[in-house]
C-alpha cells in the first residue's frame, strides 16, 4: 500500500458489485487510493482485525450473514475506521439499525455515482479526523498534554495484560512536588502551573518511546515503564529526582527551587491494578515521610 493513498476496504460477496465499486472509485478526480476487496464475512473479519484502513465499505448482506454482525465484530475489535454500508435495499429500518450500531452512513447501490461516493468518503474522513481530535483531547491533561488520570488507568490495564501475556516486567514511578502549596503561596498559581508544565517536559525528555507519562492529578505524576525491572525503575526515578533538584525552575528572573519525592513499584504475580497503584502510592508516602527529595522502592 502507498503511504499517501486512502486505504479502502470493501467487504462485498458479489464480484460484479465489486467491479462497479472499483470503477466508481477510479472516476473520482484526484483520489489516490489502495482498495482491498474481501469477498466473504470471514475474510472481512480478518481484514478488519488488522485495523489499518482509513474507511471501510461493507455490504449489508454477506451470504448467510448480516452485515450488522460484521459491524459488531468491528466494534468489539476497536476498529477505528468509519464504516459505510452498501445495499440494494432501501429501508429506514435498516438505516436505523446500522446507525444504532455505529455505522457512519448507508448508501443505496443503485444510486451510487462517483460524485456521490466522493462526498461520502470526504465526510467519512472528516468525521474520523474530528473523532481523533476529540479522543486526544479527552485522553490528555489540558495543562501538560500528558495523559490524564482516566487514560492512565486505561493504559495501565493494557500494560498489565501485556505483562501477564508475555511474561515481561512492568514497573511504575509515582511522584509529586515537595511543598507545592508553598510554591503556589510564595510565587503565585501562574508560576505553580508553569512548574507543572516544566516537570512534564522533563518527563518527556527523559523517557523512552514505550514509557507512558501521565498527570495523575494536581502535582502528582505517574510514569508506567514497560519491560522494566523495579531496580531499573528505581535508577530512573533517582536520576529524575536528582536532575530536578539540581536545576531550579526560573520564572521571570526568579529562581524557584523544586524537588520531588517518588515511589517505585514493580508488578508482582497476583497484583491487581489497584494493588499495583497502591504499592507505588505507598512508596511515595514513605519517601515523603523520610524527608522528601528522595525515592523509595516498595
From TrEMBL:
Domain (Response regulatory) ranges: 7-124
GO molecular function, one term: diguanylate cyclase activity
InterPro entries (alphabetical): CheY-like_superfamily (IPR011006), Diguanylate_Cyclase (IPR050469), GGDEF_dom (IPR000160), Nucleotide_cyclase (IPR029787), Rev_trsase/Diguanyl_cyclase (IPR043128), Sig_transdc_resp-reg_receiver (IPR001789)
Ranges where the GGDEF domain occurs: 168-298
Listed GO biological process terms: phosphorelay signal transduction system
Pfam families associated with the record: GGDEF, Response_reg
NCBIfam families registered for this protein in UniProt: GGDEF
Protein name: Diguanylate cyclase (GGDEF domain)
Organism for this UniProt entry: hydrothermal vent metagenome
Lineage of the species this protein comes from: unclassified sequences, metagenomes, ecological metagenomes
Amino acid at each position: 500500500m502507498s503511504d499517501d493513498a486512502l486505504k479502502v476496504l470493501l467487504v462485498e460477496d458479489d464480484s460484479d458489485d465489486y467491479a462497479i465499486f472499483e470503477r466508481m472509485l477510479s472516476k473520482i478526480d484526484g483520489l489516490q487510493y489502495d482498495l482491498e476487496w474481501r469477498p466473504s464475512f470471514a475474510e472481512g473479519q480478518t481484514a478488519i482485525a488488522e485495523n489499518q484502513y482509513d474507511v471501510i465499505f461493507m455490504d449489508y448482506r454477506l451470504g448467510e450473514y448480516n452485515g450488522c454482525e460484521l459491524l459488531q465484530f468491528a466494534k468489539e475489535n476497536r476498529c477505528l475506521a468509519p464504516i459505510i454500508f452498501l445495499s440494494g435495499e432501501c429501508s429506514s429500518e435498516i438505516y436505523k439499525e446500522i446507525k444504532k450500531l455505529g455505522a457512519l452512513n448507508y448508501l443505496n447501490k443503485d444510486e451510487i455515482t462517483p460524485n456521490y461516493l466522493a462526498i461520502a468518503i470526504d465526510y467519512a474522513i472528516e468525521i474520523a479526523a474530528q473523532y481523533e481530535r476529540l479522543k486526544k483531547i479527552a485522553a490528555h491533561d489540558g495543562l501538560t498534554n500528558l495523559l490524564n488520570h482516566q487514560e492512565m488507568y486505561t493504559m495501565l490495564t493494557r500494560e498489565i495484560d501485556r505483562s501477564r501475556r508475555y511474561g515481561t516486567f512492568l514497573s511504575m514511578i509515582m511522584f509529586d512536588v515537595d511543598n507545592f502549596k508553598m510554591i503556589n503561596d510564595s510565587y503565585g498559581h501562574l508560576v505553580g502551573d508553569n512548574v507543572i508544565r516544566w516537570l512534564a517536559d522533563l518527563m518527556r525528555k527523559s523517557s523512552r518511546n514505550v514509557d507512558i507519562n501521565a498527570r495523575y492529578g494536581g502535582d502528582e505524576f505517574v510514569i508506567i515503564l514497560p519491560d522494566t525491572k523495579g531496580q531499573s525503575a528505581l535508577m530512573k526515578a533517582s536520576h529524575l529526582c536528582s536532575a530536578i533538584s539540581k536545576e531550579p525552575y526560573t520564572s521571570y528572573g526568579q529562581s524557584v527551587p523544586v524537588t520531588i519525592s517518588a515511589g517505585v513499584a514493580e508488578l508482582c504475580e497476583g497484583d491487581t491494578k489497584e494493588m499495583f497503584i497502591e504499592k507505588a502510592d505507598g512508596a511515595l508516602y514513605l519517601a515523603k515521610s523520610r524527608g522528601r527529595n528522595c525515592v523509595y522502592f516498595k
